[in-house]
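Hey, quick one: can you model this chain's 3D structure?
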Amino acid sequence: MNLLFAEVKLGERTINWAYNGRLDMHFEGYYHWHQHCEILFIHEGTGSVIVNQQTYEIRSGMLFLFPPYKLHRVYMKAGPENPYIRTSIHFDQDIVMHNLREFPSRQAFFKNLWQGHIGATVFDLSGVMEQIEHCLYSFNKSKATFEDESEEENTFLFLLLLSIIRDADTDGSYNSYSQDIAKPVFYSEMIMRWIEEHFAEEVTLDRIAEYVHLSKFYAARIFRDETGSSIGEYLTVRRIRQACRLLHTTDLSVEQIGIKVGLPSTPYFIQLFKKAIGTTPLKYRKNN
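Sure thing. Here's the predicted structure for all 288 residues.
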């Protein structure tokens, strides 16, 4: 299992910028979260993004904004004939908020984007591909010109991106995701919602299969087909994510937290937590 908490070290910088990254092979991704905001823009590729118990079918021109510590997974069906090309921007949302103080309407819009909604904020910007790609290209060119990071350039990037997104957000919902991209029904979403309600209990494939009215074999297979992962992997990730939250926000003992997330065996809980996060629960609490 990959580490679930993918720490992005910004250092003295406001943003971590990866422009036009390309993959020519199948990319299954993994469930993870970051301590900062992330913007993901898809230049080319097909696949899905899973966040907040929802699966989004994606294509060129889609932009995702993941709030801090929001669990998500990107699953791309890539190959030499259909590469996955994306730009990702990890950034310190507090610094961006501060830098936008002279632009109150865009600052308020940005605040709503990363604070005011559950899950990912998803935009289909395929209609303004040329505009947004020019914006990203110009910023990347300016970064190559100036060795030191420029807060002026960073702020200008966010002003442009916010303007493009706001113009695309015609219904004022901050979510212009085109519903015709999605499948009519995702069994995986039903399973993830069930896990959300029952992960603290003893979970069996029999209970899940009964809930979705499928055989155990078919329930397991369709979940993997739709998400690229197993039900057991998703269940583990959800439990560990909740354990991290409880370590952050409560004084409960490690034993008590294990019980609350459905892992009553303390040695096994510690072993699973260390494998997923890279450290023990107590060290995680101390360092975070």
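One thing worth noting: The domain at 15-181 is CATH 2.60.120.810 (Jelly Rolls).
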